[in-house]
Amino acid sequence: MRSAPKREGGGADISWGGDHMTATLHFTESHFPKQETGGLIDCTLGDLMLRNAEEKPDRVALIEGIADASRRRRWTYRELVDESLATARGLLEHFQPGDRVGLLAPETPEWVIFQHAMSFAGLIMVPINPAYTAREVEFVLGNAEAVGVIHADESRGKDLAATVRKVMASLDCLTVALNVADLDKIKASGNPDRELPKVSPDDMLQIQYTSGTTGFPKGACLHHRGVINAAHFIVERAAFPMGGIWLNTMPMFHIGGAVVSEIGTFSRQGTFVLMQAFDPSLFLELIESERVNSSLIVPTMILALLNHPDAKTRDLSSFKSILSGAAAVPEALVKRAKKEFGVDFAIMYGQTESNGPFLETFTSDSDELQSQTIGRPIPHVEVKVVDVETFRTLPVNTIGEWWVRGFNTMQGYYGQPEATAAALTEDGWLRTGDLGTMDENGYFRITGRLKEMIIRGGMNLYPSEIENVLFEHEDVGQVAVIGLPDEVWGETVCAVILARDPENPPAADLLWAHCRNNLSPQKTPEHWIFVKQYPLTATGKIQKNVLLEWYHEGRLVPCDWVRPHRDSKIA
User: Fold this and answer.
1) Which backbone phi and psi does 461 adopt, to 5 degrees?
2) How many CB atoms lie within 10 A of CB 67?
3) Element (DSSP H or E) covering residue 42
4) Closest CA to 531 of 523, 543, 521, 539
5) Alpha-carbon distance 40 to 42, whole Å?
6) Helix H or strand E encompassing 231
7) In angstroms, what CA-CA distances link 282 with 69, 278, 323, 479?
8) Are strands 41-42 and 204-209 parallel, antiparallel or unpaired?
9) Which of 445, 344, 421, 432 lies closest to 388 in space, CA to CA?
């Protein structure tokens, strides 16, 4: 059996205290240096699970969060590790350590078992969104040069088995397909005496494909040390207790589910309750029946929970903290959630390429900081804001591109050296492509994506600033600001609005007046499009690149409106 995980800097105890980074700081340059608070967990995912099974063998590690409580399956840490080890030996009858293997299945406990089995077997997991078309699955598996795929028969009515058959006929590299339903057979096929390969914390754990908000996905190569520590620091700052219970409704093929929520839970020797899909009624019932402490939920989910009638009848006293991200969280929503649920709140930010989140607010931060910033860096990473042309570090409160460096940077994009070179500098910085500021106290504010920046008449405009103003209007439920091509200005500002009442959207001239009361003329949208839904990623991010495609295809058409004659602030 492998040795217990160690913490860099000495000692084997990895259950340390908080990171104590809430002190007042005073910066003049936008560079937050690495803080050495709390040690790095120096182990593989398999080592972490073995330690948990040794120290807490009878603690429940995994619960199937289905509606019928009598049929919910449960695994202790010892049971989950034993099943994963047996599965790992079965997988090695089909694969060699280092092989890339796709995982195409819905969010069931079997997904978790195969995930850990691949880790023990030294395989590199390639998680795939089960909603993908055959073309998208083919791209991911082909780009990753996967030799095999583990798949379910179906997911939400989608025939995954048929998708796999179609893809296998097209990809020469793909030679093995195993069915999730055959888990028991796979376990039985393995030699129980087979020695599992040695795996290093620096080894690649998975190839995580980006969500594709700005184009076709790229495969970020993530490693054991990166995902374990990023997840641990994030859930620790979000006030998730040691041995606590975490409820997950995020996709498992994504950083939010399989890294932050699941590995974060296991880094705290907690219990992971896995839902297949978000359902507010079931979510509230699970909090009550399983005594859930924490969860990662995006703003639309928070609102659905607050507005659900069961929120007033369920015993939610165990629910202590909400972690959120992926979209702006209005201050009013933060206040309401804290008041009605009695929870602490934390906002996080990160990327696939950074092995997960690396910025996060503190639960002790004010409502204003929770809603208007994305917090400070987690321990052992440094973040700076640079000029997009000169790459020089900028003064505080100046918009530039965020760069991050530390244990958490990816190894690169699989099979894409040019894209890797563009994202990673020679001295170890990851260029995030996100624009924002750092204030004198070290808190970061995001203003948008570098590729989303609108250049109007040579002036850089940041969509997030305009979106924040529109969020304040009482009739606006959600907004996405994009740049439309213009022969005179190069680009002009367009606001794509989802009204609070989509059947009765506000008048464009009223929204324009609201913006002109708070923004200069060049930042005020000139075009207005009203929609009833947005194209979203699986984690709720608006796909602005798809909005632009729809505009060019004629599927989105700006409304006719008359701008007020007086181009000045409206009293």
Assistant:
1) -115, 140
2) 13
3) strand 41-42
4) 543
5) 6
6) helix 224-237
7) 10, 8, 19, 29
8) unpaired
9) 432
End-to-end C-alpha distance for the chain, whole angstroms:
73
Q: At 280, is the secondary structure helix, strand, or coil?
A: helix
Contact 50, 196 (CB under 8 A): no
Closest CA to 268 of 10, 103, 38: 38
Kindly state the DSSP code that residue 210 receives in the 8-state scheme.
P
Residue 232 in tokens: 């641990």
* pLDDT value of position 571: 34
The residues near 436 (Cβ < 8 Å, ≥ 6 apart) are: 374, 385, 399, 400, 402, 444, 445, 446, 447
Number of residues written out for the chain: 571
Radius of gyration of the chain (CA): 24
Below-70 pLDDT ranges, the chain: 1-24, 211-216, 326-328, 458, 539, 565-571
pTM: 0.81
- The residues pairing with 346 across neighbouring beta strands, listed in sequence order, are 323
Domains defined for the chain, CATH in brackets = 453-553 (3.30.300.30)
- Cβ atoms of 161 and 154 within 8 Å: the answer is yes
Model pLDDT for residues 521-558, shown as the tens digit of each residue: 888 999 999 999 999 877 677 888 889 889 999 999 99
Lateral strand order in the sheet of 100-104: 176-179, 148-151, 100-104, 124-127, 204-209, 219-223
Residues 146-162 have pLDDT tens digits of 999 999 999 999 999 99
For every residue of 504-550, DSSP letters joined together read SPPPHHHHHHHHHTTS-GGGS-SEEEEES---B-TTS-B-HHHHHHH
